[in-house]
Amino acid sequence: MSGLETAIRQALERSERANSETRARIYQSARNALEAGLRKQDVHDPDVIAQQRHRLEGVIHAIELEERASLKAAASVPPPVQIETRSAPVPSAELDHDIHMPSERHEDRADSPVADGGLAGLRPERRDGPRAAETAPMAEPVAGKRGKAAKAEAAAAKPRRRKRGSFLSFVMVITTLVAAVVMGAWWVETSGLLKTAAERDTSVANPPSRVQSEDFDGAAGLKTLGPQAGFSGDWVDVFTPADTGNVKADSRAAADPVSDERGQRLRITSATADADGNVSIEIPVSVLEQISGKTSTVALSVQADAGKQTQFSVECDFSSLGDCGRHRFTVNDEKNDMLFQVTFDRSLAPSSPGHILINSDVTGAGNSLNVYAVRVLPGQ
Asked: Which is the CATH superfamily of the domain at 223-377?
């Protein structure tokens, strides 16, 4: 889910995020992506689908709260007011020097208290004694009137600035608290803290996701069971490394039993990706009778060679029951259990054994696959 959250945030950064309709389209795209991913993985469990949707809605809700808080904070700050002061003509250069509006210094001190009722931007008239009186003896009364008029005009036009520091701090505190509550609720939901013990149980009793024909899960394979999980007594062992008599390799494949520090296993090597590179493992008639007319699970405990990775395929030929399509998995040098489900609606009693066909490398590169066991969990 973190991938969808990152994609949503990146899409918002590249779009007109102040527009609520744009954000809504981005959120809907994330929902569509989740639904497409669930369909691609063939997830049909209503509880799993509802849980994934709930997680995404939590992420969308948290992001939308952040966006609205940012927009509200930006809207609460008004644009700076530009004051255009038209001064009356002054009769002398000396008077023009003595009375003026220092806009830059006033803007730097806009947030400080104004002690003179908004007239701090005006400098008082100054005279240098008798020399100023001699220079403009008739202009002083006129300048005094015009100077007062300019002060009055500036005082009337200049808006009073309010302190916004405390308000913005309050908004940020509320936004942070809301985001913390939302993230906390999301964490409790996704961590499974409120789930029952049965819901948190990830053992074999919970059916794994089914892989459809030619599905491929990317770099990691379908890891629904690990060696630590174990298999219950309901699983039927249809192959172990000691059962090499039930294994048959086609013309361009090899199946060699190996036993070393990594354990006893069957090492399959396919020189081609077609049927000539398949290795066949026999499935007894008694097992086919148990899965007839049911949905059952097949598990392969496999591992690639040390330091390598391979993409292998699995096919089924279950006598009168039919086949199970072709499944592809990716496995590395860590031992894992790859699972897929098979459904046979027909209840015809099989009269001959079936087979599981394994090709160790569907790319045709000749990589090997180590098979430790093949098990079947019959459906109910």
From this structure: Galactose-binding domain-like (2.60.120.260)
